[in-house]
Amino acid sequence: MRILCTNDDGINAPGLKVLEAIAAELAGPEGEVWVVAPAFEQSGVAHCISYTHPTMIAQMGERRFAAEGSPADCVLAGVHDVMQGTPPDLILSGVNRGNNSAENALYSGTLGGAMEGALQGLPAIALSQYYGPANLKLDNAFEAAAQHGAEVIRRILSATPETDATADYRLFYNVNFPPVPAASVKGIRAVRQGWRRDTFFGVQAHTSPSGRRFLWVTGGNQQIPTDAGTDAAANLDGFISVTPMRADLTAHDALEALKAIE
Q1: What is its EC number (predicted)?
Q2: Which residues make up each annotated binding site for a divalent metal cation?
């Protein structure tokens, strides 16, 4: 198996090293692991691509490249330049520092990389490590992802329907590991995306020494569970969440009611 890895925390992020180890286990001794990751952190850029300016790319080592762009840019670079003519069998994005459950998924560069992989017609999985009091001070906060990541991916790939390869919008998967030590992980739950009520992104104003006003984006409380049967609720209960997604943004449930305007 040939695997392309990317992330949104940057080429030197510890979560990327965890992902590379997961990918190496999956690829096996006869496989290949390629890395094309952002030269600098790209958290929160979602599915952004550098459409109006070029992206510089530099080789950092064998099968390892850094690109001055978003995770989606890195997937494009990997598929159409670095691995041109021999596309990967699988694209992995992560392991993100912090969760991409619930509404976080909409902002996530980690998810953006996986989404671009699916739009390129390739199997793609995003992986993120939830942080919380039970794992934040571990020697390796990514312990749950590191120990359970490969097996989760194997199960996802085995369960993906063969008909998905012909779909207009291919599936990609959002995997979030719970904020607990690896030994405390209770299992896997296939769940839908949730919504954290009463917690939102916002901004906080600061004035610089020169008198200029700057705004810092602030996040909400990540320890608030979502509804039962959704991702953040499963994570906070100690389970790995797996959520199938597509890039089709149509609100299919609203189409019939909207016929009234025709």
Answers
A1: 3.1.3.5
A2: 8-9, 43, 96
